[in-house]
Amino acid sequence: MAGVMIVFDFDKTILNCDSDNWVVDGMGFTKLFEELTSTMPWNLAMDIVMGKIHSQGITIDDIADCLRRAPLIPHVASAIKIAHSLGCDLRIVSDANVFFIETILKHHGLLDFFSEINTNPSLVDKQGRLRIFPYHDLTSSSCISNLDSCPSNMCKGRIIERIKANGEEGNKRIIYLGDGKGDYCPSLRLRTNDFVMPRKDYPVWELMCCDPSKIKAKIYEWSNGEELERTLLNLIHSINFVEDHKVDFNKSDAILSTALDCKSQLVAVSPHEAFNLSVPL
């Protein structure tokens, strides 16, 4: 079995808010941040705001306490734990930063479920000030798909291409979950046997709706945590069944569609039931 790799965005996909805004607003620096982002890249503005926060006597522990209060999307924690228990390789690709993501995941007991976190580097310097740096070199980080939806500091499409090129890991079927404009480029880099789960009525979903034919992967939308969990787990079970039983490509589409169409409960139709309902033997 090739296996399943699940790639999560973080803000508004695992976390039910934007972690940068959560800290900036919680610390009372919203106005400054808005002024900075009107004239410079978001990532650079965050680093400057962290400096201003430090200069006001707000400590890294204060920032961590603020992050621990940030809400997860309901059901996402259980979805992560179950997906991991089913043997999935879980990763994060996010335009947040290491400190924010690791602090939140540790607080909820979820950090160890992820094999890799791709996000903007951060560190606490000798003065106790949080520094945030760009993931990609700003002078050479143009979008691999030539889109304006990728920020200058991170092209998630490049990260997906790197993952796909990594030998055995690259053979895993990818399920990508995201919500923002930056999640459109990596969605374009997915293959026909991969899957993408955009959050409905969010920017990445709207971009996909403009021309769904540009996406090679199968698209399954979600609106809330319950839908995310149900769709993701049904998809994992169905993929595992198809691969374990060496079902051919045409029949596998029918199994996946049937298992995912039913919305009455968490795992509404088992892959075996879907196989019997959809495909004559």
Automatic annotation (TrEMBL):
Residues the entry annotates as binding substrate: D20, D95
Pfam name, any one: Put_Phosphatase
GO MF entries: metal ion binding; phosphatase activity
Record: residues binding Mg(2+): D9, D11, D179
SUPFAM superfamilies the record matches: HAD-like
Active site (UniProt): D9, D11
Cofactor: Mg(2+)
Domain of life according to the entry: Eukaryota
Keywords from the named record: Hydrolase, Magnesium, Metal-binding
PANTHER family xref list: LP01149P, PHOSPHATASE, ORPHAN 1, 2
Name assigned to this protein: Uncharacterized protein
Species of origin: Stephania cephalantha
